[in-house]
From TrEMBL:
UniProt name for this protein: Trafficking particle complex subunit 13 isoform X1
Annotated Gene Ontology cellular component terms: TRAPPIII protein complex
Pfam families per record: TRAPPC13_M (PF23647), TRAPPC13_N (PF06159)
Trafficking protein particle complex subunit 13 middle domain residues: 190-288
Location of the Trafficking protein particle complex subunit 13 N-terminal domain: 6-173
Organism the protein comes from: Brachionus plicatilis (Marine rotifer)
């Protein structure tokens, strides 16, 4: 294919909110003396309880009040909303006629057409010299693995020729959580004794680099009419208990009404429904299969 200079240039940028700047926690001794610090080293090496020294960390959180503007594409996790800004610019001295933009997202399963939203022009328009045509696309990410954003630009030049070009932007979608036991949740994951109600326990680990506010974690039965109750060790109004730090693991316990289940028939009983928020209120939502 012959390479040529096009009248129109294409720029794509993922829209991200700034993140909070995090620092490593600074620990201090209860009593500031070199002897205490030496005793601490001895205690660490030889496990000597008699030389134990207490360390103080005035702030358990490593987040600061400073904001960091994203410089790279960043991580993208399943359950998030992918938002991207697209700009077409006429970099020539000629008019680009009948301009059109087609945006598609290729996943491991299928190719999804995305709607380009702009408040300036229609989907087909003329672009004058040094004029831009910009807008955004949005997509709720539901697939893992490699994704390719495909942008196809078509226009008619000053000679009446219909020209087009494509650009590809590749990114990877990862899991935000590691969940144990692994889904689908079957009967061996439940504890049942003396014909009492069935208890189910799930461990959820935050494997992102972000602080997550776990807004909702529910066990949804596959069949209707099954009563499920979450057993919480904290009050619903306690927002601190819902904050999940990077690499932190939290356990969730649910009680299932035994009378509503047919334990003799094999198969999954329920799935987890998880909703969370990031530091600036961005939503995330997934359901285990």
């Amino acid at each position: 294919m012959e390479s040529r200079e096009h009248l129109v240039s294409l720029k794509v940028m993922r829209l991200l909110k700034p993140s909070t700047y995090c620092t490593l926690p600074v620990y201090t001794e209860t009593k500031h003396s070199t002897s205490h610090f030496s005793n601490l080293l001895l205690d660490q090496v030889f496990n000597l309880d008699s030389f134990s020294t207490e360390l103080n960390n005035p702030d358990d959180s490593s987040q600061t009040d400073f904001l960091v503007i994203p410089q790279i594409f960043g991580n993208l996790y399943i359950g998030e909303k992918f938002i991207s800004y697209i700009c077409l610019f006429n970099q020539s001295i000629h008019r680009a006629k009948e301009l059109s933009l087609k945006v598609e997202l290729q996943t491991s399963k299928n190719k999804i057409p995305l709607k380009f939203v702009s408040d300036k022009f229609d989907s087909m328009t003329d672009l004058e010299p040094e004029q831009k045509y910009d807008g955004i696309i949005e997509h709720d990410v539901v697939d893992l693995g490699n994704h390719i954003l495909i942008c196809t630009v078509s226009y008619t030049n000053d000679k009446g020729e219909r020209l087009s070009f494509k650009k590809f932007y590749k990114f990877i979608v990862s899991q935000p959580f590691e969940i144990k036991p692994t889904y689908p949740f079957d009967k061996q994951d439940y504890v049942c004794k003396n014909n009492q109600d069935i208890l189910f326990q799930a461990q959820i680990q935050n494997i992102t680099n972000n602080f997550l506010f776990m807004e909702k974690v529910q066990l949804q039965p596959v069949k209707t009419g099954v009563k499920v109750t979450e057993i919480r060790p904290y009050e619903e109004s306690d927002t601190t208990a819902k904050m999940l730090k990077p690499s932190e693991i939290r356990q969730y316990l649910f009680k299932i009404d035994r009378e509503c289940l047919n334990l003799e028939k094999p198969g999954p009983i329920g799935k987890l429904d998880i909703t969370w928020k990031y530091s600036f209120g961005e939503n995330g939502h997934i359901q285990t299969l």
